[in-house]
Amino acid sequence: MSIVPQNIGKIYDAALDRSFEAAEVHALAEDRAQLLWELGVKTGSRVLISHGNSISFYVDLFACWKLGACAVPVDPTTSLPELKRIGEFIETPLLLHRDQNLKNERDLSFPALHSDKNPPVKSTKANFHSALASTNFKLDDDALILFTSGSTSEPKGVVHTFRSILAKTAIYKRAMPQAEWKKTLCVIPTHFVYGLMSNSLGPLFQGCDLFVYPSFNLEILTKLGPILDRHEITAFCSVPSMWKIIFDFSDKPQAKSLKRIHCAAAPLSRDLWKQIKSWADGIEVKNVYGATEMACAITGPADGQEFHDGLVGKGWDT
What we know:
- It is built from ten helices and 16 strands.
- Helices cover 33% and strands 20% of the residues.
- Helix 1 (22-38) crosses helix 2 (55-66).
- It has helices spanning 22-38, 55-66, 80-89, 125-133, 162-175, 193-204, 218-222, 224-231, 243-249, 270-279; strands at 11-13, 18-20, 46-50, 70-73, 94-97, 112-114, 142-148, 156-161, 183-186, 209-212, 235-238, 260-263, 284-287, 289-291, 296-300, 314-315.
- The protein starts with 10 loop residues before the first strand and ends with a strand.
- The chain is globular and about 55 Å long.
- Strands 2-1-10-9-11-12-13 form a seven-stranded mixed beta sheet, with helices on both faces.
- By secondary structure, the chain is an alpha/beta fold.
């Protein structure tokens, strides 16, 4: 059982300059699930994932969900004391990471697995598949914990179930039509609900291709226009703070493939909205609103609607 559709879109990892087709992503996730199972991960387990924007992140996320485990994405730049605090708070049995500095860390109260370490698999595929077939997690079991500061300085763990993820991706299917998100760029952190749900799983689950780049990377933002042209990107998510850098340093896209841009995580002014539309040659620019507790965006203005400061439109089947 898995909530991840078989016909997801392909995932392009910019760091590897390589695309992974749906079948390969599922195969990698199954292999990884077997490793996690050997390490004791099962239905209800909580697994910290500290990979950042990469194919490894999606593979381990989907591997957790194949086992009915709860994934806990965290910022890969999180300090060791904070990582320990989060891990102990959620009683995690395992940390998955790519941090060379953590490879020999002995001061963690829970086990950690570096992405380049694949412990020998003791069981056969047949044994694993038998165990997988008997996995019996429920849609209302915990699937995801996302940490958010909200309006306070102390991060809170927001829990989502398998059902809420499926419900939100179903809503996105109506609010984010496949033709417009056919080729989606992700430069938002995947440990944020915006980067994970709106920018990644929403398009991926309806078969759209996802092009994943390092998040909030200055060099990437200064080359955004050419990157959009190179991949013929049709849509992407942004935050207001990105646009000052883009306007000052990036050429405008020329390929005419872009159909829409979402902007969220902070209020959008009419002036900035007009600047974005001008930079993107007049396409739809939507100020969407949501929260981590809502699995991200729940509203967006109608196409062609005249914009004013802070307009977030009407609810999406909400």
